[in-house]
C-alpha cells in the first residue's frame, strides 16, 4: 500500500535535500539524503541487511526536525483558553478551513436565513466581530483560506456569502478549489504570531471534539509553510465568487 507521507522539514537553503518526511500511517521517519554507496563505507555499517539503504545527512537535520518524543501526547485546551488567543495575539491570526461543512454553521440562525433567502445576515455586535474589528483596527492581521469543492456544498456557499461580513471587520478571506489544494493537509488550524498553532479536531458530524495547541518550533514551522502555500494559491473571496 502506498505510504501517506507528510513533509517534516529540511535545513537545505536551495534544493530541499536532505529532508525528513513522516509516514502518517506508521509514524516512521523517512530520511532523504545523499546515498552511501562506497563498498568500504557500507562494510563499516553494523546490522546492514541486503535490502537496506544508507543515506548521509547533516546532524542538524535530525536535531532540528527529528521527532522530540517517541509518542506524541497532545496538549488539549478548553474553549475559553482557545477564545483567549484571539484577544492576546500580537501580530497575526490565520486559519485554514478544509472541511465541506461545520455543525456550528448549520446551527446558526444566519445559516437558516441563508437557506430561506439566499443571503446571510449578521449582527455586527456579535463578540467575534467586535473583537476582530478591534484587533484589525489596532494594526493586527486576521485572515483565512477556505478550500472549496466543485460543486460547492450548501455550507460552503453560505460561508462564501458570509465572507463579506468577515471582510467588513478587516479579515482577509481567500479561497481555492480543492483540486488546487493537493499539497495542503486535510486539517483545520489557526496559527497565531507564527509561534502557536491550534489544531481543530472534528467528529464525523463536523463538531469540534478537541482543540490541540502546538508550540514545538519545528511543528509550528511546518504549519507556517502550509499557510504560505495556501496564501500563494488562494484568491480573494470576492474574486473567487465572481468567477465561480
UniProtKB/TrEMBL annotation:
- Domain DUF6879 spans what residues? 81-241
InterPro entries, per this entry? Answer: DUF6879
List the Pfam families hit by this protein, alphabetically: DUF6879
Name the chain's protein: DUF6879 domain-containing protein
